[in-house]
Amino acid sequence: MKILYIILFITISFSNITISQDLTAEQIYEKVNKTVVVILSYDDNNKLISQGSGVVYDDKGYVVTNYHVLGEGIRVEIRHYGDIIKDVKIIGIDINKDILILKVSENIFPAINIADISKLKIGQRIYAIGSPLGLENSISEGIIGGLRYFDDIGREFIQITASISPGSSGGAVVNSLGELIGISTLTYKEGQNLNFAIKFSDIQNIKIESLASSDIEINTLFLKGNTELDKGNYLDAINYYTEYINTKIKGKVYYTSDLSPVFNNRGVAYSLLKKYDKAIEDFNKAKSLDKKNFNAFYNLGLAFYYYYNYPVVYDACIEYFTEAIKLNPYYQQAYYNRGLMYAKKNKCYDAKKDFYKAIELDPSYENELKPIIESCK
Q1: Domain that includes residue 226, residue range
Q2: How many CB atoms sit inside 10 A of residue 90's CB?
Q3: For every residue of 181-241, which 3-state class applies, written as one string?
Q4: Tens-place pLDDT, residues 196-247
Q5: Cα 293 from chain centroid?
Q6: How confident is the model at residue 304 (pLDDT cuts 50, 70, 90)?
Q7: Same domain, 196 and 230
């Protein structure tokens, strides 16, 4: 009888365990299709200037897409298989991370399920659903090819092999259970099938507020600054960033954290012009406005090194890189540069530890760092 009770207990216990099972592409599409929409951006002349994709991620009617889908537009509409939603409010913007949050009335669309972002793994199967070239809600399949931080633009992405084309921007990237891990954002034309998505954890950090059309117009100054920075027109970028900062401060309607990425990016422009004293001033301002801006700490470490470039500042550089790593443990470039600082101080154990971590996060560093590791004794 005792044995029977044990068997019965085990049976009951295991009956309460739910085992997640991967869905087929057909099941994924059926589950996600109604949550992915087309985003239409219009200028002040009511002219359609761009089109992208978006994802309904909250029962309140919140829709996320890329900021560049709005671009220099002032209003958006949402389309889903012939249905047009004109009453769309812009309630969240992060130009630096290329995120735009919209709101429609509740219960128009179902919300997508959200994945546990901490469980992302390289090699994990994913699906992208968006509207490339206007082909509404097309699905493509792939894997996570890497978790990348790009130093030149100061942003972190999920690298994916699923296809992305113009119009896919802002579309859903989901795991094999149909849960949202991020949104499609860009592709590298120079590389074959090198596509990237923004993690949903970045989307969760966007402030939700009602934005007037004047606020949206002001934000285009930041967008123009980023565009000129990408083009290498650093003086033009500085002018746009400065105009944005002055306009925000004059109007006295801003969050201090809103200005942090602008000061950071202006500091990058100054650094690229080798005006490191001005860059250091801007990076210090950026980190004081937002203690979680790891880009500002990292860039401060670089600027200190290039501006002063003598051993007494190596400890300061290490301190700034360390702060950046604390805020973003996947920041491979910070490990790389902190390792170089340790190597310059002949702290080979610490240097090798950082170099191996950088290689773990980005294997492309191996060929470059292997000789340095071998020479550090």
Answers
A1: 213-328
A2: 22
A3: EEEEEEECCCCCCCEEEEEHHHHHCCCCCCCCHHHHHHHHHHHHHHHHHHHCCHHHHHHHH
A4: 999 998 898 888 877 777 777 788 888 889 889 989 999 999 999 999 999 8
A5: 13
A6: very high
A7: no
Q: Decide: 18 and 73 in contact? Cβ < 8 Å.
A: no
Residue 367 lies inside a defined structural domain of this protein: no
pTM of structure: 0.73
Residue 74 is which amino acid? I
Helical segments of the chain, H only: 2-15, 25-32, 67-70, 200-204, 213-231, 234-251, 256-272, 276-289, 294-308, 314-327, 332-344, 348-361, 366-375
- Distance of alpha carbon 93 from alpha carbon 108, whole angstroms: 22
φ, ψ for residue 287 (rounded to 5)? -75, -30
Tell me, yes or no, whether 26 lies in a domain: no
Q: The domain spanning residue 94 has which CATH number?
A: 2.40.10.10
CATH, residue 313: 1.25.40.10
Amino acid 364: pLDDT:
83
